[in-house]
Amino acid sequence: MRQHILELLMKKFSEKHRMKRLEARLYIPLYEEDKEECNEMILELAKLDFYLLQRLHREEVKEICEWYHGLESPRELFYARHRPAEAYFWALGVYYEPEYAKPRKLLAKFIATITPYDDTFDNYGLWKELQPFADVMQRFCSTSRSHFEKIILSKFQLYTYQI
């Protein structure tokens, strides 16, 4: 078992690039193989935890996909990538803990929403057509910044008990 774990740890990606909870599925079978060190209770709890987490992720992916396909942009932007499940997986890399379901879904929706616009800029639009859209986005960002900064500061003060 130790040799298997060493091989897994020596993969070309460092630990910071791996998703910890998804990696559990690699270790559960190895732990199960090692009969002398295997504690059945711990093994069952690990499997149960993994299956519950997998079920949560499946439900969230289903919710994100249903939400996305209810939007009009997939129909209007036919040339763009429409991958809400991939967007969810990206968000899962940021918020992998089960208790962060709401921010994970929000980030996945944000990524799924902006991907078609990114494809528009990269592949479809002409510079003359895209320049007004870029100008509007820059104006929105510059006028909204002070408003968002006030909101973020007030939330930070509320959560750190500085109010």
From TrEMBL:
Annotated Terpene synthase metal-binding domain ranges read 73-141
Q: Which domain of life is it from?
A: Eukaryota
Q: What is this protein called?
A: Os03g0428200 protein
PANTHER family named in the record: OS04G0344100 PROTEIN-RELATED, TERPENE SYNTHASE METAL-BINDING DOMAIN-CONTAINING PROTEIN
Q: Which UniProt keywords apply?
A: Metal-binding
User: Pfam families from the xrefs?
Assistant: Terpene_synth_C (PF03936)
What's any GO biological process attached to this entry? terpenoid biosynthetic process
Q: One MF term in GO for this entry?
A: magnesium ion binding
- For the keyword Metal-binding, the answer is yes
